[in-house]
Amino acid sequence: MKIMQINLVGYKEWTESLGYDREWKIQNFQHGFLSRLNEIAAEINSFIITYRYDSYIMLLDGVLIGKNDYILTKIKELSPVPIDICFGYGKTLLDAERNCSINIDNILLAKDEKVLVAHFDLDGFSRKKLLFDAYLEVYKIYNKLFHYAIELGGLAYYFGGDNIGIFLGVENINKIIELANSFPSMKVGIGIGNNPREALKNAAEALHTIRIYRNRKIEIVDSKN
Ligand SMILES: Nc1nc2c(ncn2[C@@H]2O[C@H](COP(=O)(O)OP(=O)(O)OP(=O)(O)O)[C@@H](O)[C@H]2O)c(=O)[nH]1
């Protein structure tokens, strides 16, 4: 699996330079920066994951990042601080992060893997009345999925609402199906694609199919080619 990691150098110092009336400025930057990174990632059929906002992972399997520094120049222009970039390759996404190095050949010479994303969607979420009840339920499930993803070397990501994704290599398909079956009141759309954007599109299509037929909780859509 392949990734590019974008690290904001001196982000801590930048946030503290904003004075005490800063939280709104930090939130403004973080959501704006992530929004622009998402657009850049979508342009190259990738997807961005972040847990900390001072470091971002761009999933690169099946993505033509090439040696051109157009992407890197665009990202650098968006950041208030210098950025460090590393490229990682490994059997799993976690291995790829552990092997991250500045040498882009690390990924250019490596084989692209197909991307699997399991999109977990709780049943009846929008009918829950209290925001806190709804989020507490989602948070507990996210916590469980996050730990399980790490055991498989994958990355879990909260998409919003009652939607949680786990990104993995396709060899984990049976384990993901077993995991999906362990959750009552859950739909799981599994998308397999030649790049992260295609895998996510397939997962959304799989969830739509589940909603139409309503008699099953797991569906797989795979871009065979
Ligand atoms: N990030 C993300 N949010 C979504 C997606 N689909 C729906 N949502 C949001 O998730 C929340 C819940 O939507 P649904 O899951 O369709 O509502 P629900 O009540 O759970 O309905 P069922 O899933 O059909 O049981 C809403 O805020 C939607 O806007 C998606 O593909 N990605």
In short:
By secondary structure, the protein is an alpha+beta fold.
How would you describe this structure to a colleague?
It catalyses: GTP + 3 H2O = 2-amino-5-formylamino-6-(5-phospho-D-ribosylamino)pyrimidin-4(3H)-one + 2 phosphate + 2 H(+). It comes from Sulfurisphaera ohwakuensis. GO terms for molecular function: GTP binding; GTP cyclohydrolase IIa activity. Keywords: GTP-binding, Hydrolase, Nucleotide-binding. This is GTP cyclohydrolase III. The protein has 225 residues and is an alpha+beta fold. It folds into two domains: 2-109, Nucleotide cyclase, GGDEF domain (Alpha-Beta Plaits); 115-222, Alpha-Beta Plaits (2-Layer Sandwich), CATH 3.30.70.270. Helices cover 42% and strands 25% of the residues. It has eight helices and nine strands. Strands 6-7-5-8-9 form a five-stranded mixed sheet. It is globular, with a radius of gyration of 18 Å. The chain binds guanosine-5'-triphosphate.
- The radius of gyration over CA amounts to 18 Å
Strand arrangement, largest sheet? Answer: 6-7-5-8-9
CATH superfamily label of the largest domain: Nucleotide cyclase, GGDEF domain
The tally of helices reads: 8
Q: Give the strand tally.
A: 9
General shape? globular
Uncertain ranges: none
Which cofactor or ligand species appear? guanosine-5'-triphosphate
Percent in helix: 40-55%
| Whole-number tally of structural domains | 2
Beta-strand percentage range: 15-25%
Q: What is the correct CATH architecture of the largest domain?
A: 2-Layer Sandwich
